[in-house]
Amino acid sequence: MPLVVLTTIIPISKNSSLEKRQKKEPTCPKCKNELNARIRRGFIVKTFLFWLPIKRYICYNCHRKLYKLS
Ligand SMILES: [Zn+2]
């Protein structure tokens, strides 16, 4: 079952030291809430800025969508 493999891999990668070495989670400029929810990039960004290491986040606190360069 592919589903079983997926559920066993995810917790291991979350606890890996590699992720801890990365920059800490970006925060919302408005409410300083931690942006840990990534959403799909918009059509324009996907079409014209696909070469940029850009990530789109949503803040569930103030419902702002923002892009961050990683
Ligand atoms: Zn916010």
3D structure, described in words:
- It is a single chain.
- This protein is an alpha+beta fold and 70 residues long.
- The chain has a domain at 23-70.
- It has helices spanning 2-14, 17-21, 43-48, and strands spanning 38-39, 54-59, 64-69.
- The structure holds zinc ion.
- Zinc ion binds at residues 28, 30-31, 33, 59, 61-62, 64.
Could you name the key traits of this structure?
70 residues, alpha+beta, 3-stranded antiparallel sheet, 3 helices, 34% helix, 20% strand, binds zinc ion
Summarize the structure.
The protein is 34% helix and 20% strand. It has 70 residues and is of the alpha+beta class.
| Shape call | globular
- The separation of the N and C termini measures 34 Å
The hetero molecules present are: zinc ion
Oligomer: single chain
Strand order in the sheet with the most strands:
1-2-3
Strand count, sense and barrel status of the largest sheet are: 3 strands, antiparallel
Taking pLDDT < 50 over at least 5 consecutive residues as the criterion, the unreliable ranges are none
Tally of contiguous helical segments: 3
What proportion strand?
15-25%
Count of distinct strands: 3
Radius of gyration: 15 Å
Task: Report the average pLDDT across residues.
Answer: 80
Provide the helix percentage: 25-40%
Q: What structural category characterises the helix and strand content?
A: alpha+beta
**What's the helix-strand series?**
HHEHEE
